[in-house]
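Working notes for the structural subgroup meeting. M.R. asked for a predicted model of this chain before we commit to crystallization trials. I am recording the input and output together here so anyone reviewing the notebook later can reproduce the run.

Input as submitted:
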Amino acid sequence: MVFGKIWESPAPSKVIAFSWQLLYDRVPTKVNLLLRGVIHHGGGEGNCVWCVDFRESSSHLFLRCKMALEVWYAIFKWLGVVIVMPPNLFHLFYCLSEAATNKKVRNGYRLVWHSVIWSIWKARNNRIFSNLVKETLEVVEDVKVISWKWSAARLKISPACFMSGAWNPEFV
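Returned structure, recorded in token form:
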């Protein structure tokens, strides 16, 4: 099963667990907090921090939000992958997991999945809790740096590989 392979990544276990929860819509998005009565309707409390006209559901925040789409498309461009955005997060994970026939490349793409999800979540939380606004390109750079750090820790590669621009997630 492809979704069991979500655990086959050099990403930290807390990030992998977060990704697993995301696939099953169990992360504390504003829509989920509204459903549980943690926040209340009215005043736009349940709306996305970037697209104030839309409710912040998992699929919106990580897939359909303008910010998320821009991040995903920039990352796909970096990877050299052409993709039409799938209808849900399960399909996106499946597409990334099966985009390559080489096991190393597949693992690299899974690592990037975790990096994108984690970077979007951190940017969202920074905006809500610290009023720190990141631009799309900053989030994309975060994805690249985080992917490299997680790979470097696992593979014990030199920091010069990233700084020289030679690092690519396909080498995980």
